[in-house]
Design brief:
heterodimer; A: 294 residues; mainly alpha; B: alpha/beta; D-Maltodextrin-Binding Protein, domain 2; six-stranded mixed sheet; 19 helices
């Protein structure tokens, strides 16, 4: 995608200086509008950042939305050690990284088979996978919880990884097979003539060509798995095994919540996803039109 | 609720078949954490006391227990907001946590009637000095004790002493005093009564219903009503709402929009004059401001009705499926001792009264006042959901919020409430 866009923008650049007034006004309008919108988007984040640096007495006495009267960076250490964010981040990493790697591996294999070979019921399989994605995951909460108990898999991180992989797979297969179908058949035929087997074609030809899609999906799925709350609280019960999202929730009290510590915890919890986003920013945007163009 | 019964039945069938698997995983969890010896063993304590102060207090309790016992207790704190919906799931799971923090009364009885709770009568053998009322509260319909109370607290109309002095107000004793006080506060430009029944804390409105009902119709009628022995369309219930209407104009107009924690903020910074709340309120008060706070007993409306007060009791119950009943009972017996309860009241926010009469309650004037108010009360109630079920609480939330917003629609609100409540009683 990126390769087709960049020559265009290079070609357009010299022309920009001689643009008519109307077009320039439109550009100015776009930029003021966009910055106003992004400011609006940033406002809640700024509020969280401000709250995370206020002291408990300040928040309790003056209310959440008051201007800060104090500076208390120790909220972060309270959330990190006392609130258990440290262990929670480790748990999240233990779950997210294998879950993403495993989903991408399995999904790309399935997508390769479904897109490059004439498998009977291929269309039905893809539609079933897509259909499964349209169902809300909530209806499977009780079956998943009960089954994991019956199989003795309840309350363990590998179970959570398996559940996350299972629920992500359908969508990733659907997206990846759409992408793999755009790879010209000639490349595969050439490899076949050179004596490559199915696995070699998959591993050495198709997979490298699918890299942009894999990177985009990997970045997306990392944020999804990392930010998931539903499955962790369904299959886990022990506090020390909980990933970031339930840990953040458990900072809330029964009656009274120390919002400054919760805000500090949220900031800590947001760092990994923000880091992944910044690193894979390009792929995120590419990910939005995955499978949109054939 | 019925779905739990069905799934539990299915589960019991499954549990028989995979009993071996469950037992294996049970061993794994029992030996893995501390490598404890066979005659000791670890049990899990599932706690919903997730506010930082309460969690630390629980941690120090568990540490103190483990130091003097051959058993170890592993504390699992779960967010209060997720604990309540997940509690039935915990209790019905194949390998459930052993001990749970929860409420005494009808709510515990409800789980016991499904066979989910452990008989803790043997722990009660050491608890002869407890008030008989607490024992009754901890006994299920079948006559066995299933609950060990650790502490209780009270509800009252909280206010700031300095604000009341500024407005020239004293503590109202009767309903007409109270209405006059509301008028005075309104004339001074503040909101007389805060509520905080907004998102997530709609249940606080039920405190008003509870108190008006027990002041007008008495605690017995109130309990019977919540058990389905009277109808919500009863003229006595209509009385509750007509009395409520007298003070409704003095309620915070945003009372059903702001959360309880925001309402407590309004009281602290003087925007509102009074707030009917439980003592957990003290957790929301910055250090140093607590001395300015005081409360008065909910005003008497009909002097011929004996005074009853809300005194929600917290404590522990245990799963009947525990693998280590000896350890569970040992821990619960220890939690009933003055030593444990003193530790708890000293490390938590300090506004609860220990359940064991031999334990020392915090010496603050606020706690002593609350303790004597409860001691003088003819009867004690718990709270709407604790005297009924969480399902009935949901119907109350809908009805009460609707009433506060549209007091004119009272009769249709009560009819709807009654039909929803009938659904709950039918399925319970």
């Amino acid at each position: 995608m990126a390769a087709t866009v960049s020559p265009d923008s290079l070609a357009a650049r010299p022309a920009r200086a001689r643009r008519p007034l109307g077009k320039r006004l439109r550009t100015i309008g776009f930029h003021t509008g966009a910055s106003a919108l992004s400011l609006l988007w940033f406002l809640p984040i700024a509020l969280i950042l401000v709250i995370s640096f206020r002291s408990t007495d300040d928040v309790l006495g003056n209310g959440l939305n008051a201007l800060p009267h104090s500076f208390a960076p120790d909220n972060y250490s309270a959330a990190w050690s006392g609130g258990g964010m440290q262990q929670a981040l480790i748990n999240s990493a233990i779950v997210s990284v294998p879950a993403v790697a495993l989903t991408l591996l399995l999904a790309s294999m399935a997508a390769f088979a479904l897109s490059r070979y004439k498998i009977p019921l291929r269309r039905t399989l893809i539609l079933v996978m897509l259909g499964g994605n349209l169902l809300p995951p909530q209806i499977l909460l009780v079956p998943v919880a009960k089954l994991s108990q019956v199989f003795g898999l309840y309350d363990s991180l590998p179970t959570l990884i398996a559940v996350e992989v299972g629920f992500g797979l359908g969508f990733y297969v659907f997206v990846l097979q759409g992408f793999m179908r755009t790879i010209p058949a000639e490349i595969q035929q050439a490899a076949l003539l050179d004596g490559a087997g199915a696995f070699q074609i998959y591993w050495r030809i198709v997979l490298p060509l699918t890299r942009p899609a894999l990177a985009a999906l990997g970045a997306l799925s990392f944020t999804w798995v990392f930010n998931d709350l539903l499955w962790p609280i369904t299959v886990l019960i022990t506090q020390s095994k909980m990933p970031v999202t339930p840990a953040l929730l458990s900072l809330q009290g029964q009656y009274v919540s120390y919002w400054n510590v919760i805000a500090a915890g949220s900031v800590i919890a947001a760092i990994p996803t923000v880091a992944v986003f910044l690193r894979f920013q390009r792929h995120f945007i590419a990910g939005l039109n995955l499978g949109a163009v054939k | 609720m019925s779905s739990y019964t069905v799934s539990r039945r299915g589960l019991l069938a499954g549990a028989g078949a995979v009993g071996a698997a469950a037992a294996l995983s049970g061993c794994a969890t029992a030996t893995a954490p501390a490598g404890s010896t066979q005659q000791g063993g670890a049990v899990t304590l599932q706690s919903d006391l997730s506010s930082p102060l309460a969690e630390q207090a629980m941690q120090s309790l568990v540490a103190a227990y483990s130091k003097q016992s051959k058993y170890t207790v592993k504390l699992n704190t779960v967010a209060a907001t997720t604990y309540q919906p997940l509690l039935p799931t915990y209790l019905t799971s194949a390998n459930p946590p052993d001990i749970y923090t929860w409420y005494a009364g009808n709510d515990a009885d409800h789980y016991s009637s499904q066979g989910l709770l452990l008989d803790v009568s043997s722990a009660w053998k050491t608890m002869d000095n407890y008030q008989p009322a607490l024992k009754t509260l901890s006994t299920d319909a079948a006559g066995k004790q299933i609950f060990v109370p650790t502490d209780y607290y009270w509800w009252g109309v909280f206010y700031r002493k300095s604000q009341f002095a500024k407005w020239g107000l004293g503590e109202p004793k009767t309903w007409s005093d109270f209405v006059n006080a509301c008028a005075t506060i309104k004339a001074k430009g503040a909101i007389p009564i805060g509520l905080g029944a907004g998102t997530g804390t709609a249940w606080v409105a039920a405190a008003w219903f509870d108190y008006l009902n027990i002041r007008l119709n008495g605690a017995d009628f109130h309990r019977d009503l919540l058990q389905g022995k009277h109808s919500f369309t009863d003229p006595k219930v209509v009385d509750v709402f007509t009395t409520w209407k007298q003070v409704l104009p003095y309620f915070d107009p945003n009372g059903t929009a702001v959360s309880w924690q925001e309402a407590s903020n309004q009281l602290l910074n003087g925007k509102c004059g009074m707030l009917l709340t439980g003592t957990f309120f003290a957790d929301a008060v910055p250090k140093g401001s607590i001395d300015d706070l005081d409360f008065f007993k909910f005003p008497v409306i009909d002097p011929s009705v004996p005074d009853a007060e809300e005194a929600p009791t917290d404590g522990l119950f245990a799963s009947s499926k525990t693998h280590n009943a000896a350890a569970v009972l040992d821990f619960m017996t220890w939690m009933a001792t003055p030593t444990a309860q003193n530790l708890w009241t000293a490390t938590s926010s300090g506004t609860v009264i220990p359940a064991n009469p031999q334990a020392t309650a915090p010496s603050s004037a606020l706690v002593q006042k609350g303790k004597s108010m409860l001691a003088e009360a003819a009867q004690l109630t718990q709270f709407f959901n604790r005297d009924s079920t969480d399902a009935l609480q949901n119907t109350a939330n809908t009805a009460l919020i609707d009433f506060i917003q549209n007091p004119g629609k009272l009769s249709s609100i009560l009819t709807t409430w009654q039909s929803q409540a009938e659904q709950v009683w039918k399925t319970a």
